[in-house]
Design brief:
Strand order of the largest sheet: 1-2-6-5-4-3-7-8-9
Order of helices and strands: HHHHHHEHEEHEHEHEHEHEHEHHHEHHEE
Radius of gyration: 23 Å
Helix content: 40-55%
Shape: elongated
Structural class: alpha/beta
Number of helices: 18
Mean pLDDT: 90
Number of strands: 12
Length: 373
Amino acid sequence: MFNVRDLLTLSMIPGIGPNRLRTLVSHFKSPSAVLHAPTRDLIKVSGFDKKLALSVIRHRDGQGGHLGEKFADEQLAKLNKVGGSIITYWDSEYPPLLKKIYDPPPYLFVLGSFEADDQFAIALVGTRNPSDYGKVIAEKLTVGLASVGITIVSGFARGIDTTVHLAALKTGGRTLAVLGSGIDVIYPPENTRLVDGIIEQGAIASEYPMGTQPDAVNFPRRNRIISGLSWGTVIVETSIQGGAMITANSALDQNREVFAVPGNITERRAGGPNKLIQDGQAKLIETVEDILAELNPRLRPPLGQHTSEAKLAEIPLTDGENAIYRVLSDKPLHIDALAGQSSLPTSDALVHLLNLEFKGLVKQLPGKVFARL
């Protein structure tokens, strides 16, 4: 049986960081087995020599073991008080995209819940002091992504992050907030108003123990989780030295896509996105469609390969999408024919077709040819 208390106890052993903790538990199949493993078995684990194995045993069997158990009990009590849970690397609920990064956290403290469709996620991050332009663009991108079923990930900070979470909630979409503190330490305090909404429509998560304060050193490591939960990361206004650039670099290290919103070259907070674009590390984006086109089909929400009329009635369509969908059939049609028959400009028709594609209603064939699913 997988015992979370034992996992927390193990995490307090000196020399057992997140990577070794994952290695140990994966090798022995449970944290309880690690706590009872003899030296001869510990030294068989990759990366463990006799010295480290003996250190683990001395700590777990001595006073250190009692301290670890006390820590675990205190953490679980605090977690229960706020109605949270722990999701471990070995649980089916653990985000599959996060599991694929180099150093996934062995466990996450969570308020709310992760859902299967959260694998279709995009992160939007940026400065704590955005311009009006930055806030407008961040909100516009968030609304567009959330409206087609994409989960929005951000870091719960002031500025762009807060704008993004608010926009996702107002759109009725899902959003995941990754904290640089314990989940019982809400920072910034004014974002307490967002907590209930995010729990209802997503999750607040942290790898940091309950009670951890939002120290500056926590946030760079937190950023790898933001990008790790997402297929791509969008950078909206940040200086070259800004924290959002750490998230961008984490995404690049994880082989995930990076997108950047270009800004005024005289603005310091545009320096980060502009440099990413200039260096060829990020794709310049102006619209939601730029993001979706790049990531198709990885971001296609799981709405099924075939849609009945009853199912269609449950999916909200704009007037433009309706105009295009009425023209479509099982027989493939070229974009020029679709635009002509729907009386829409070709550029508008392409936008509506892309939205229909991500709603699971349309498929695109080679040569700008489209058909109903």
